[in-house]
Every structure is written in structure tokens, then in C-alpha cells.
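Deliverable D5.2: sample structural annotation.
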Amino acid sequence: MFDPYMSDTFIDGIDTCSITFGSGKLEGVFGKDKVQIGDGVSIDDQSLGLTTSQKVFDDSFDCIIGLAYPKMAAKFKQSGERHVPVFDSVIEQGLLASNVFAFSMAMRGELGSELTIGWIDETKYTGEIVWHDVVLQNFWSLALDKVTLSFSGGDKDEILMTICDKDGGKACLVTPDSGTSSMTFPSWAFHELEGALSATGANPKMPCPPSFELLTLT
């Protein structure tokens, strides 16, 4: 836990902040300090927020590191300029040989999720990495080619519905977000999905029946 009173380089009171997340809200003040990541990355004059009240954290949190694009960063209330996110400071100060970061996400509450900065741990995946362009640089939004829901009940899969299809004139984006375990999508897509699932006897607002295991989302 960071204690600003234990730091000789901390600069206090440069701004205040109020941030709303999908899971809650926090308020606090901004300061600046030297931030150390691991053994080899030392970031000078990094903006960081100190929480004064919050309804977000539990005992598993140490901090929140914003890794979205700079246009998503909080603004200074006086000037309207945005604070520089941690990874953008790393890039601007030339601290890494390779400007990459990567996540390995543990599933179902298991321990072992990991963020690597400056390299990709090849032991965490198999096959080749497939790179996609970021088409909306707020969060990390990627273009979806097509989303289909199919039913496996016979010799071959039967496509129940297609929600997004770039060739069909309804393009969609997907945004991987390491900050949430929730899956959200637009209301129009939910209504289409609701209708398709109702046709199978499933209720999308209730726990899935055993027959739902036969449905494949791709």
C-alpha cells in the first residue's frame, strides 16, 4: 500500500478526481511521484491518484492501473489537459526496448493472473499470436467480422442467428477489458439474442438450462 508520507519525492495536491466505474465509484486527489515497476522500470513525475473515499475495492486490490488510451485519462480541472497514463509515460521516457504489455488471465477465481510490461511470456499461450488493428483508440476496440450463435443437435451445426456481420452491413466492435469480469453488449444485440434464445426454450434473464450447453457462440 502506497503511503505518500513515506516518500521524499511525492508532490501533493495537483488536482482532485472523481471516477465512476461499472462496479462503483471513487473520489480522491492527484499527486506526482516516481513510480517503480519491477526491477528495471522507473517512471519520473507520474500522475497517480490517492483515494479518499471509494465503493470499488475489496481486499484483493492494491491499486488500479489505467492502460487505456490517453483520451480516456482524467482531465486536470483547471487546464482541461489530461493526465498521462502510466504506459504512455513509459513510452515517452523511452524506458523499454519493446513498447508492449500483455495479460495472462486466470479463470474461475484461480490465482495466477499476470501483467507483463516490455515483453510477452511465450509460456502462457500456444500457437501463433494473431494481431488486430485497434480501430477505436479509447479503449482497445477491435473490429468483429461476425458473431454467430449455432445449435449443435445433429450431424452438423445449425446457425441460429447472426448478430454482427461486417459484410452484411452491421459492423461491431469488441473491447477486451482487463478491469472487469462482466460481458456487456448493446441493447439492440441483446434483444435479438433474447428472441433467438426464447425460440430454443431458454430465458436469457434466468440461469441457462442444460440444453443451452448445445449452443455455440463464435
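Annotation notes: The mean pLDDT is 81. The two ends are 41 Å apart (CA to CA).
The annotation will be released with the project's public dataset once the embargo ends.
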